[in-house]
Design goal:
Helix content: 55-70%
Structural class: mainly alpha
Number of helices: 4
Shape: elongated
Strand content: 5-15%
Oligomer: single chain
Number of strands: 2
Distance between the termini: 28 Å
Largest sheet: 2 strands, antiparallel
Length: 163
C-alpha cells in the first residue's frame, strides 16, 4: 500500500515540477524579450545624448547608429548587438558618410571610436579628441541592476502561481 502512495505522490510531484518548469520557461522567454527591448532603449538613449552634444556643420547626420542597435532572443539568451551592416557608407561631395578621406569604410570601428576616448582622426573632424560616451559600459551597469530586480520578480511570480 505504501508503495502505491509513494508512486502517486512521485507522479504528482513530477507533474507539478514539469508545470512549474514549463511556466518558468514561458515567463523567462517573455521577460528576455522585454529585456532585449529595454536594453536597446538604453543604448539608444546614450546614443541620442551623444548626438545632442554636437550639431554637425560639415556633414548631414544619418542616425544610422540608432537603427543598427539590435537584439534577438535565442535559447533563453538575449543577444544585444550593433548590426553595422545596416550602417550606410558612401562618398559625398563634402564629408563622406562613415568613410575616411581615402574612401575606406570605418563602420566596423565606429562603435569603439564613439564608446572610448579617442585622439585619432582628421584635425578637421570636430569629434577628434572627444571623450568616450561609454554607452556600452553605462548600459552594462544599468543591465546588472535591472537583471537582479527582474530575476527576483520572475522567481516570486512563478513560485506564487504554483503554490
Amino acid at each position: 500500500m505504501s508503495t502505491n502512495i509513494s508512486r502517486e505522490l512521485n507522479g504528482y510531484t513530477k507533474g507539478k515540477l514539469n508545470r512549474i518548469k514549463k511556466n518558468l520557461d514561458k515567463e523567462i522567454n517573455k521577460r528576455l524579450d522585454n529585456l532585449g527591448q529595454k536594453t536597446v532603449e538604453q543604448l539608444r538613449m546614450y546614443t541620442l545624448k551623444w548626438y545632442a552634444s554636437y550639431i554637425p556643420k560639415v556633414y548631414v547626420r544619418t542616425y544610422d547608429l540608432l537603427s543598427c542597435i539590435s537584439y534577438k532572443v535565442k535559447n533563453q539568451t538575449v543577444y544585444i548587438y550593433f548590426d553595422v551592416d545596416r550602417m550606410r557608407s558612401y562618398d559625398t561631395d563634402t564629408w563622406n558618410v562613415h568613410r575616411g578621406f581615402g574612401g575606406i569604410d570605418f563602420t566596423r570601428g565606429l562603435i569603439d571610436w564613439i564608446e572610448n576616448d579617442n585622439n585619432s582622426g582628421s584635425d578637421l573632424n570636430p569629434r577628434k579628441n572627444h571623450s568616450g560616451i561609454y554607452m556600452i559600459k553605462n548600459t552594462t551597469e544599468w543591465l546588472n541592476e535591472y537583471l537582479e530586480e527582474e530575476t527576483n520578480k520572475i522567481i516570486n511570480a512563478v513560485i506564487l502561481e504554483n503554490l
